């Protein structure tokens, strides 16, 4: 890509089969920082409440994979909402939907597959964590809208990216308490700070 773009042209994504590359770019797999930032609040929860390293390690693996999938799903949702706007912005014009490398219907099918894979991970958790996981879809879908109707879309992003803190807490203990909510709030303000 020429000019200022948020797509990284080289790296491991360039070595994927040609037909896979737009999907990897749609999920932002070329830039894993978003997955790390989504994952870290869950890791905080495990460090605080996991009774032994085995459970913490198992949950870390599940939440790590879940973070990659859900961050990718959020990027797909965002790009579906914003594809017409993205075409007009130099930084985002090269994204797969904005550039025409993928059609919206292909992105929707791909989104369904990514969410199905995330559901398989979610089903490994207890019922309370599963409910929190399903509830996380609401802010994921609403974030692109928040960019249009508020001056503080990063507050919605803060809700989304700190979601793993209470979810990780519930995955270990089966419920929430004041400490879990404080952990969520600290994640929310951390995200609000770095994204503002």
Brief account:
The chain is mainly α. The protein has a single domain (23-195), classed as Tetracycline Repressor, domain 2 (Orthogonal Bundle), CATH 1.10.357. The protein has helices spanning 21-26, 33-49, 53-86, 96-99, 104-122, 127-135, 137-149, 153-161, 164-173, 178-195.
What does this protein structure show overall?
With about 200 residues, the chain is mostly helical. The protein has one domain (about 25-195): UbiA prenyltransferase (Tetracycline Repressor, domain 2), CATH 1.10.357. The chain has helices spanning about 20-25, 35-50, 55-85, 95-100, 105-120, 125-135, 135-150, 155-160, 165-175, 180-195. Helix 3 packs parallel to helix 7, helix 7 (about 135-150) packs antiparallel against helix 8 and helix 9 (about 165-175) runs antiparallel to helix 10. The longest helix is centred in the middle third of the chain and has 34 residues, at about 55-85. The radius of gyration is 17 Å and the shape is globular. The mean pLDDT is about 95.
């Amino acid at each position: 890509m020429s000019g200022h773009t948020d797509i990284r042209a080289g790296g491991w994504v360039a070595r994927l089969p040609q037909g896979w590359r737009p999907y990897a770019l749609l999920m932002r797999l070329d830039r894993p920082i978003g997955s790390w930032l989504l994952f870290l609040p869950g890791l905080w929860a495990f460090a605080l409440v996991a009774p032994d390293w085995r459970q913490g390690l198992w949950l870390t693996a599940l939440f790590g994979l879940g973070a990659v999938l859900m961050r990718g799903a959020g990027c797909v949702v965002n790009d579906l909402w914003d594809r017409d706007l993205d075409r007009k912005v130099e930084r985002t014009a090269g994204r797969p939907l904005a550039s025409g490398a993928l059609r919206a219907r292909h992105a929707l099918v791909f989104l369904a597959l990514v969410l199905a894979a995330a559901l398989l991970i979610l089903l490994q958790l207890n019922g309370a964590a599963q409910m929190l996981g399903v509830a996380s879809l609401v802010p994921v879908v609403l974030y692109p809208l928040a960019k249009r109707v508020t001056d503080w879309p990063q507050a919605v992003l803060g809700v989304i990216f700190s979601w793993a803190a209470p979810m990780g807490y519930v995955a270990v203990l089966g419920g929430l308490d004041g400490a879990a909510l404080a952990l969520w709030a600290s994640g929310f303000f951390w995200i609000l700070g770095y994204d503002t």
